[in-house]
Amino acid sequence: MSGTPTGRGAAEGAGRATALLCENAAWLAWLEVREDPAVASFDAVRLPCSGTVETGFLLRLLEYGRRGVIVLGCPKDSCEYTRGSHRAEKRVGVARAALREAGLNEERIRMDFISSVDGPRLIAVLRAFIEGLDRGAARADSAPGAGAGGSP
Amino acid sequence: MTGLFACECRSIRPPKGTVSGRKLEPCGEPCADGGKALSARVKDAGLDGAVIVGCQLLFQPGLVAALAGAARLPSSRLLPVALSRKGPAGAARRSIGCTLAALHAMQPIETRRVKMDQRVLVVGEGAAAREAAGALAALGHPVASVSRLSGLAGFPGAFTAEADPGGLSLSCGAVVLATMPAPRLPPTPAGARSVALGGLLDHLAALRRRQLPRSLCVLLDLDVDEGIASGERAFHACLEVRSRFPSVEATLALRDAKVSALALEKLYDEVREAGVAILKHAGRAMLGRDDEGGVTVRLRDEVLGAEVTMRFDLVALSDPGTASDGDRDLAALLGLGVDPQGQVQDDNVRLLPGRTARPGIFVVGACRGESWEPNALRDAAEAAAAVHESLDAGGASGRGAIVELAHAVVDGEKCALCLTCIRSCPARAMRILAEEQRADCIPEACRRCGICAGECPSKAIRLPAWSGEVVAALAGLQGAAR
User: Fold this and answer.
1) Rounded to whole angstroms, how far apart are CA atoms B141 and B395?
2) Between chains, do A49 and B98 touch, taking CB under 8 Å as contact?
3) H helices within B259-404, ranges in order?
4) Which of B430, B451, B463 would best serve as a mutation to test chain A binding (most A beta carbons within 10 A)?
5) What pLDDT, on the 0 to 100 scale, is given for residue B171?
């Protein structure tokens, strides 16, 4: 791999959270609520389907200093590609297990399912995600060495 | 060379100055002017890709593809960015910068001219199949009709079907499944007096006057909710019974009267006015027999909110048309989903009406659980229009359609022939090339979802427009792919 930054924690966007959004539903909800303050702390990445997300990519985002990663797919029974949301959920589960086994805050990676017309729920999910990250960071501060805010 | 453009409408505030060393060029209002200014600028400068910054209107279905088409760019090489009006300028710069980086990380997308076989295979007999065949013929497609299918290979625009019986091999561009419903009669206790709803009137007509039952129950929705077709047949049967056999007291028991179709509510009112008692039940109704040869019906009355048991001389059971076992075999053969009622359709609102997860294969009428004839016929007409749309792109000129080769690409060196992609592809677009000993993706069948790329354990598959490099760049991790 060429061009790997040496100071990974200092890469652009470090300290912010990333939202990976399926363009068929969650992305449309995101566009509707993009003026909301809850959205401002996220960098949004539009994807053709949440099912394209790889476990390694989720972990790499944390490696490069992202605070947390949330994958937002279609509701499972209305996935454009029928099984994409199921498959993404499995891979997010694998990434969370990897964080858990490493003794890190598994809430830094999450998956949720948002319909294209469900902007209010999207905001609630994003707020809850940030609160989970804050709680994890507070726990890490009170237990030195756990390092939930640092590099995995 | 790539371009960076910003919509000139006032709903966004593009960042001032440069982004990643590039200045944002004005390009009119593409969502209002059809992209005239944009395409002129792209063509003048000979660009091979562009990022366009605008509001959420850029993401209207099909708009980016239309703008790209007008500018003669592959649609995956025109990347839209939606800005917010109030958001911080830093966030806007970051998202534009990441999108530019993604465009640069994307490898060129080639195009190819593809000829689609215009013939359509209609599987099944009956009104929906005839309607589909007629509508397709009217749209200029040669139609082949077969009653059953025993095999299907190939991809949209070039299927090879094996018709059953006879083993006839046919080439076609698309397939419409329009099989007939199979009547399904619920089991009744041995010796209980029950008839199928379809045979009720003949049964009563064959009896002598004093043999006629005094009480009759027409029972719908015994174990599952049935559709509009069952309700309509039951309403007609009840009216006939009341007019031809006035001595028979009729009760109609159903879960919900499904009257959401033309003239059905009026028919329902006529049934009530004809003196038929209507009873709404919930859950499963249980049938038994009593000592005098009558039938007991135990059900939960929704209005009373209590279990009631009633006795009738005769029960007429609805025999709803549903997908048959043959249809389920067909679904398995074609790799189509089956919903909880056994009907050939995925339980997914995005695929209605008549579309399946596999491009080029459509399902209409009773096969997908729509046995009410007016709806089945409408299904057939809609499927015919969808088939025409899928086969016609560029087909009218006879030269074929221009297809962007943005499908999944398999790296033969990395492919371990584990078949994960074959199992995970919802569109069945993957195949194995035996001679090259690797998996391969069929461009005409691929829907560019990227599920195979995400699943492949060897990381041998990538979508050119959404490769690891592109997604990493979009997420701000330049140079950090895979």
Assistant:
1) 11
2) no
3) 264-273, 325-334, 373-392
4) B451
5) 94
A-chain residue closest to B473, CA distance: A45
Which residue reads 């199979």 in tokens?
B182
CB B178 within 8 A of CB B123: yes
Distance CA(B180)–CA(B475), nearest Å, equals: 50
- Partner residue opposite A51 with nearest CB, options B84, B94, B449: B449
Instruction: Write the DSSP assignment of B234-279 as a string of letters.
Output: HHHHHHHHHHH-TTSEEEEEESS----STTHHHHHHHHHHTT-EEE
**Scanning the structure block, which residue is given the tokens 């359709």?**
B345
Phi/psi at B175 (nearest 5 deg)?
Answer: -130, 135
Q: Is the pLDDT of residue A7 over 60?
A: no
Whole-number CA gyration radius for chain B: 30
**Distance between CA atoms of A5 and B473, rounded to whole angstroms?**
13
Chain B residue nearest residue A32, CA to CA:
B56
CA dist B408 and A21 (Å) reads 20
Predicted local distance difference test score (pLDDT) of residue A10: 43
Structure confidence by residue, pLDDT tens digits, B396-429: 556 677 778 889 999 999 999 999 999 999 999 9
Judge: B471–A88 Cβ closer than 8 Å, yes or no.
no
End-to-end CA distance of chain A: 20
The residue type found at A122 is: L
Q: Output the pLDDT for position B62.
A: 87
Omega cis (within 30) before B353: yes
What Cα–Cα distance (Å) separates residue B335 from each residue in B152, B259, B329, B387? 10, 34, 10, 19
Judged by CB atoms closer than 8 Å, whether chains meet at B468 and A64 is answered as: no
Whole-angstrom CA distances from B216 to B188, B288, B411 are: 15, 15, 69
Residue given tokens 């391969």 in the structure block: B440
One-letter amino acid of B87: G
* Closest listed residue to residue B277, CA positions, set B240, B238, B243: B238
